[in-house]
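User: Fold this one for me? It's Leucine-responsive regulatory protein.
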Amino acid sequence: MTAQTRKPARLDELDRNILRALQADAGQSLDEIARQVGSSKTPVWNRIRKMREAGVMGPSTVVVDPQAIGLDACFFVLIRTSEHEAEWQRTFLAALRARPEVQEAHRLAGEIDYILKVRVADARAYDVFYQALISEVRVFNVTALLSMEEIKTGTALPV
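Assistant: Here's what I get for Leucine-responsive regulatory protein.
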């Protein structure tokens, strides 16, 4: 997502129903989606194609259970920096994008400049991530918060 704002797409009820069906399970067949939304396959496919072209939908992906692959620890990392120059920001953002442990990164308003969602195996793996990050980019303060329990997660948006 970019900082640029754009006009929201104009969606009718059929578009919204298609999006709900895809958000629930993007792997289902076109026939199944058409059945769920009360339409036929061709109009549903055309609408999906148009929504993709309009940027309403990104690429389809698979949701992997982190614990099933040994990523048991989720840290929320709060970063404060005294650096705000363009070059520092480019280096910092490149470092974040290069690290698969970083699931999400957000620039914030307020006292904290950035928040990261980091998935790793354990505290030792987090420390390896942390040491590598601070060796690449200078930051003023880093606070790591270990998530004790994931209460709600998801990517579905209310459409």
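One thing worth pointing out: Helices lie at 13-24, 30-37, 41-53, 86-97, 123-136.
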